[in-house]
Amino acid sequence: MPGAYVWMGLLAAGTAVATWMARHYALRGNLMDQPGDRRSHTVATPRGGGIAIVLVVLLAGSYLMAQQASSPALWLGFLPGLLIVAGIGWWDDHRPLSPWLRLAVQAIAALMLAVGAGWHSGHWLPALVAFGSVMVLVNVWNFMDGINGLAVSQAGLAATAYAAVLGGAWGWLALGLVASCLGFLPFNFPKARIFLGDVGSGALGFALAGLLTVATIDVPIARAPLLILPLCVFLVDAGFTLMRRILCNESWWTPHVTHVYQKAARRFGHAAVTLVYAAVSAITLALMLAWPHITLGQSVWVVAVAYSVVSLCWFASRSGLRE
């Protein structure tokens, strides 16, 4: 294996080149996100740039799987699952599909990762984590991909956290995901020249679900609850917003601009909100890594306090951002 900096530099550069090519493809094919009442941007912008991240992560993962031939089950669940989640997103970017078709394809990908996790670990719990995390994170990243730099920066921070606790090939893959996010970010922040699209947001959610699954297998059970700390900001905003829309009998699966991050972006701008969310996630990342030796009860307590604080901030922010 090359050194970590060489590995990340090559993958970041590859992602940047692929993103540049994806942007030109989108411009030639008129693959554009148009502004509207249910969008947070004001100018037509190319979409589908996340295909660059997908290609780089798939290539990196295929290389790492070849280097780790003794334990292919997880890789055989992860790589094809990532491919089909990205594929249905790429299709949807070109021609909008039924949300139920996309959900069904995501469930197939989740099942593939779950089988791989169960086969690799010999236990049912990692399989359950795999299935649930795919179904949640793929859709959360899709819901939260609405302003410049937010989804890709949050994915990069979460991948950094998992890179810190994972060893071997999966640790290298986590670093590869960080690098691909860094390679894409200049095209998406502070001014978006291309959006991730469903191909990118779904793939980021799936990749993080895969890393989370492997981390639950690798880390001591006492530290396992801490693994959801880097996902806190997105899970809270997406979770409470979804719950509110369901309780209000709204069509929760349709695009909207009622997330706290969207309301805040209209008042303070995209860059400020993305940076604030990144700062909060950096704190949760630090909390995850702060206790190398901790009991299960303490882990649960730390997670409960962190999620409670972020939830209170969410309710306070929503109240202060009423329009």
Descriptive account of the structure:
With 323 residues, the chain is mainly α. It has one domain. It is 72% helix and 1% strand. It has helices at 4-28, 51-67, 73-94, 99-121, 124-143, 150-165, 168-184, 197-218, 232-247, 260-268, 270-290, 296-320; strands at residues 32-33, 45-46. A two-stranded antiparallel sheet has the order 1-2. The model has no long low-confidence stretch (mean pLDDT 92).
Q: Helix- and strand-based class? A: mainly alpha
Oligomer: single chain
Using the CA coordinates, give the radius of gyration.
19 Å
Shape, per Cα inertia axes: globular
Number of helices: 12
In total, the number of domains comes to 1
N-to-C CA distance: 53 Å
pLDDT < 50 stretches: none
Could you report the average pLDDT, rounded to the nearest whole number? Answer: 92
Write down the secondary-structure element order. Answer: HEEHHHHHHHHHHH
Largest sheet: 2 strands, antiparallel
Helix content: over 70%
The total strand number stands at 2
Q: What is the spatial order of strands in the main beta sheet?
A: 1-2
What share of the residues does DSSP label as strand, in percent?
under 5%
